[in-house]
Structures are given as structure tokens and as C-alpha cells.
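call fold(seq) -> C-alpha cells
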Amino acid sequence: MKCPEHGVDYETVRTMYEQFGVILKDVKALRCPVDGEELFTLEQAEAIRQRITTLSPRLKLVRKITRAGGKPSIYLPPEIVKEAELKIGQEVAVYLADKKKIVIEAAE
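ret:
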């Protein structure tokens, strides 16, 4: 498939994709080697939709903020820990993505 703007063949790449607060890693896409614009074929878009549909029900859980040791804490369900491939005692990075979104990810 060729980029209509530059007339060069798109490269097949792996990228990250975010939708509705769900971040998918290792997603197939096409990228223009000239300007880096990425796009998805219909098949790639369908694969993304299926992955999000599969993950969304398990990832969107409501939890209350409680106290542990006098500090605010949130209980992480075992399903989330397992799906994220985290382990007890493992370090994680916690940061604000925006005013209403807290991100927890494995520390590198």
C-alpha cells in the first residue's frame, strides 16, 4: 500500500494505541517513512477493536479509596495484577495522566 501524499510504500510497524483510557501495546500499523504518519487497515482496526472489547470489562472496575497505615490506598484485584503481569513486591510507577486519570504501570 502506498502513501498517497508521498508515493512511497508504507512500512508495517508495531506501535501503541490508546482509546477510552485503555492502552494497547504492540499494535500493527502502517507508517509513512517520509512523515511518520500512522494508519490502520480495516483488518488492523478490527483487531484493535477486539482487543479493547476483550480487555475493557476486566480493566474498568470501581474501587473505594481506603486507608492502610494511615495513608490512602486502593485494593488491586488479582485479575488486574495478573493481566498486567505484575507481582507482589514489584515496584510500580504511579502518576497522573490528567486531573481525573491515575496511571499505574510496572517500573522499568
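The longest helix spans residues 42-59.
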